[in-house]
Every structure is written in C-alpha cells, then in structure tokens.
From TrEMBL:
CDD domains: GGDEF. Its cofactor is Mg(2+). This is diguanylate cyclase. The keyword Cytoplasm does not apply. One of its GO terms (molecular function) is diguanylate cyclase activity.
Length: 509
C-alpha cells in the first residue's frame, strides 16, 4: 500500500516570502516537524475537493477509531448536542459539528493531545482553545457562514510554535520558558531571534500539510492588527486578545483593554461580551477534554465581567477627571497666551497700540487697501516741546500728559482707525478708507481739542500742549510699501516742526 503523502501548499503561500531564507531552508530540511496522522491527511484531501460531503469526511475519519471516538464525544458534548439525542455514527457527528470544525478537530487532535507536554506548550494550547471558542462565538454573531473556518484558524493560530520548537529547540526554550505574560512579547522575541514570528511559521506548516491556502493565510495573519481586517479575519485576530485576557494574571485588568478595543470598533460593538465570556466558560472544559489537553484555568465569566466593568468605570472616571483638568489647564494657557498677545501689542502707559503692532497693522492695511483700490491715510503726531514740559514739571507729569493725550485721540478716532504710541511723545493714527480731507479733519479736531482743553493740571494750574501733525495718503505718493508711506507722514511731521510747530501738513500737498 502506498503511503499517504500530504499535498504541499507552502509554495502557494504569499506569506512564505516573509520567511527569512535560513528559516525556510531549515523548515524544508527538518525531519522532526510535527506531522499529521493519515486520517487527518485524508480529511484534508476531502476538504480540498470542491464537492466535499459529510459522507466523504466521515469515511476519511472512520479509518482512525480514536479520532472517531473523539469526534463523537465532541458532537455529543453539551455545546453541540444541546437537547438533541445522542448520536452514534461518525457521519452524524460530522453533520452535527460541521465540516470546518471536523477539520479543525482532526488537525489539532494529534498536536494538542500529549498531556506531558512542556508547560509553555500547554499554555499555548490553552490560548488556542479559548481563542477558538471566542472566535467562533464572534463569527456566529458577525459572519455565521464563516464560523467553522474562523474556529479552525483561531485554533491553529499558534501551531508555528511547534515548528520553531522542532527547528531550534534550545533557542526556543530560552524565549518560551517561561512564556512571556503578553503574547505580543513572544512574537517580538521571535522576530528578534528568527526574523519572523510563529504565526508566519505556523502558516507555512499548515500549508505544508496541505490545508487550504486561505486558511494558512489566516493563521499567518492571526497576530496582525484586527482593526481593518475583513470580518472573518477580524474574529480570528481579536480572539487571541480575548484568550490572552482570560489567561492573564489579572484577567479583569486585561479584559478592560479588550473592552476598550471592542468599544472603539463598529463591527465589534455588536458582540455581547457577557454572552461571549459565558460561552468560553461553558465550552472550555469539554473542548479541552475532546482535544485531550489539560483544561486551562477557567473563570467565573459573570464575576470577571463585573470586575472588569467596575474597573472600566473607575478608569473612565479617572480619565474624565484628568481630561477635565487638562482642558481647564489648556483654557488657562490659552487665556494667558491671548493676554500676553494683547499685552505684546499694547503700550502700557497709554493703552494704545505699540510701535510693533502699528507697523504690522499698517503693513496689512497697506496691502489690502492697495489691492482693493481703497483709500488709506496715516498721521504722525508729535507733542511740541515735550522736553521742556518734562524739565519743568517732572517726568511723572509728562507721563500723565502722554496718558491723557492717548485718551483724547482714542475719543476722536473711528472704530476702524488704529491709534498708537510710536515712541516717546510721538503718536500715529492709521485711517483705512480715509482720504487726505478726512485725515486732515481728524487732525484739526485733535489740535482744536488741545487748544480748547488743558491736557493736565499741576497744582490746579492748566497745562496746554500743541502738536505737529504730518499726514500721508496712499493715493498721493506712489508708495511701494507701508514703510514708505509711514516715512512720508513722519517727514511731513518734521516739516511742520521745522516751520514752527503747532500745525498740520499733508504729504505732497
Ligand atoms: N515723561 C515722559 N517723557 C518721555 C517719554 N518718552 C520720551 N520722553 C521725553 O520726551 C522728550 C522728547 O524730547 P525731544 O525729542 O527733544 O522733543 P521735544 O522736546 O518735544 O521737541 P520737539 O519735538 O522738537 O518739539 C524727552 O525729554 C524724552 O525724555 C515718556 O514715556 N514719558
């Protein structure tokens, strides 16, 4: 009789290209890789045929009595039997559990069953079992037609550990014993040591056995990010996280992070976590029994969920409080920033714009008014003989005069104008949309007010000041930029000073 050989699908696998050459060569030449029993190879043959039937599956399994008994036990277990009568034939068992679950059971039975396996393998299989149950439950909710496929892929997601163990027993012991608490740390160590992780190697092994390529690919990507995965692979990928939480030293804490993941994912929001956890709790012992592995630690799913919900609630409260604090800190900062911004534009003595802000604003108005063909006037106002006032009355009185003059021009300008202290006793007014006549009118009002009203009193004695005002208008001088316009106003003001002060002149007029 010819020995039954598995069909090697590893060449068809796109993931194979991500295996480093030395790993691929090593795997191809390794004689101690886990193999499949002949019944499993026959079942795989059936699985590959396009019209695989329940009968064909059953006939392949019947060649292995122990496998047959295990499949019957699974079909009669509480989960599959529900209240249906006990069944006695392999064909009935296949029909009840479904073709995909039959395939998964057949493939994994031989791999998992040694009860004397190293502790880390027991842990890995525990993870696989829990993941498989979780994955199938999620698939039943989200993509019922794929539940069997999802179950198989989740169950076999860690078989690459076996291949790596066969290939590099010593290296593997160093990173597998003890198994890292977080499964992702295991993958990380494998990446560092082998340049690939056990998921990719597992995909290769499954393909080598001849499992359908899309199943091998699902194993290979089982540890990848689930967020953007198609729905069936989403179930496979998320299942590992759920199993990790179930087996974690502090399951409630780990479950909280799973709950956050579920919440942030639209597909996953349909999954009822309580029912999912209860399904794991109920099915775990019987599935472990069927696959002959030591049952992993079980959880009281209700208690676990309640604890996790409590933690989530507390964390959310703490998070909200932190968020609120951060928001108020941010608001304070913004307020302070805008205060500083305003302060950086203001002359503290008069409360008017300072020189920097005047120059910046003039630049903007100049560009805008020129582009839109609008008028723009600038007036430079300098208090006459201010040094004498300072000398006569003192600097403090000089300050009061500057302050009062600031108030005076603020009263006289329009909302659209901008007045500021350019420096010392020199002031500037920017007047958008105002031509020479309007600017001159304002200048006259300033001069008139100063003539009418004392600017300050010293010991009840009124003090009067006069000003020299120079005006320049955008339309009058062919100015290339705001600086030229400003200089023109300044020069005009100096011209007034030169001809005797206390007067108004317009550039170019
Ligand atoms: N009190 C006070 N005086 C200032 C301030 N800034 C500048 N000054 C004074 O303003 C005076 C300006 O003097 P000058 O530049 O000679 O001008 P002026 O005496 O007004 O003479 P003309 O401009 O030619 O009419 C100086 O005495 C400065 O010390 C200020 O913030 N407060």
């Amino acid at each position: 009789m010819l020995a039954i050989q598995p069909t090697d699908n590893s060449q068809k696998l796109s993931l194979t290209s991500t295996l480093p050459d030395f790993i691929r060569e090593g795997l191809n030449n390794c004689f101690t890789l886990p193999t499949l029993p002949s019944a499993a190879i026959k079942v795989l043959d059936v699985a590959r045929s396009p019209n695989a039937s329940v009968k064909a599956y059953a006939e392949a399994i019947q060649t292995d009595p122990i496998l047959t008994i295990r499949l019957l036990a699974l079909a009669n277990s509480a989960y599959y039997a529900r209240s249906a009568p006990t069944i006695h034939t392999c064909q009935e068992a296949v029909a009840r559990v479904g073709l995909d679950t039959t395939l998964a059971t057949t493939l994994s039975f031989n791999l998992f069953k040694h009860k004397d396996q190293a502790a880390y393998l027991q842990q890995v299989w525990s993870r696989s079992l829990i993941a498989a149950i979780a994955a199938r439950y999620m698939a039943e909710q989200l993509c019922p037609g794929e539940a069997g496929f999802v179950f198989t892929a989740a169950l076999l997601q860690d078989i690459g550990v076996l291949a790596l163990k066969a290939l590099y027993p010593d290296d593997v012991e160093a990173i597998y014993e003890p198994l890292p608490t977080h499964h992702s740390d295991l993958s990380h160590s494998e990446q560092l040591l082998f340049g690939c992780d056990h998921a990719t190697v597992g995909a290769w092994l499954a393909a080598k056995w001849g499992v359908p390529t899309h199943l091998a690919e699902a194993i290979g990507t089982s540890h990848a990010d689930y967020a953007s995965a198609p729905i069936d692979l989403f179930c496979v990928r998320l299942s590992g996280h759920i199993a990790d939480a179930w087996l974690a030293p502090s399951p409630a804490h780990s479950l909280v992070s799973v709950m956050r993941k579920l919440k942030s994912h639209t597909k996953a929001q349909q999954i009822e976590l309580a029912a999912l956890l209860s399904t794991i709790e109920k099915q775990l012992p019987s599935l472990a029994d069927v696959l002959e592995i030591t049952a992993p630690k079980n959880q009281d799913s209700e208690e676990l969920l309640a604890e996790a919900q409590d933690l989530l609630f507390q964390q959310t409260l703490a998070l909200n409080a932190r968020l609120e604090q951060q928001q108020s800190e941010l608001a304070n900062l913004l307020e302070r920033q805008s205060e500083l911004e305003v302060r950086s534009r203001i002359d503290p003595l008069t409360g008017l714009a300072n020189r920097g802000w005047l120059e910046e604003q003039l630049g903007e108005h100049f560009a805008q008014c020129r582009e839109e063909g609008r008028a723009l006037s600038v007036a430079f106002i300098d208090l006459d003989h201010f040094k004498t006032i300072n000398d006569q009355y003192g600097h403090l009185v000089g300050d009061v005069i500057l302050e009062n003059f600031g108030k005076l021009i603020r009263r006289l300008i329009k909302d659209s104008d901008l007045a500021g202290r350019f420096g010392g006793e020199e002031f500037m007014i920017i007047m958008p949309d105002e031509d020479a006549d309007s600017a001159q009118l304002l200048a006259k009002k300033v001069a008139h007010q100063l003539a009418e009203q004392p600017i300050a009193y010293v010991e009840s004695q009124p003090i009067h000041v006069t000003v020299s005002i120079g005006i320049a208008c955008l339309s009058d001088g062919g100015f290339a930029n705001s600086r030229e316009l400003m200089n023109a106003a300044d020069q005009t003001m100096y011209f007034v000073k030169h001809i005797g002060r206390c007067g108004i002149a317009i550039y170019g007029h």
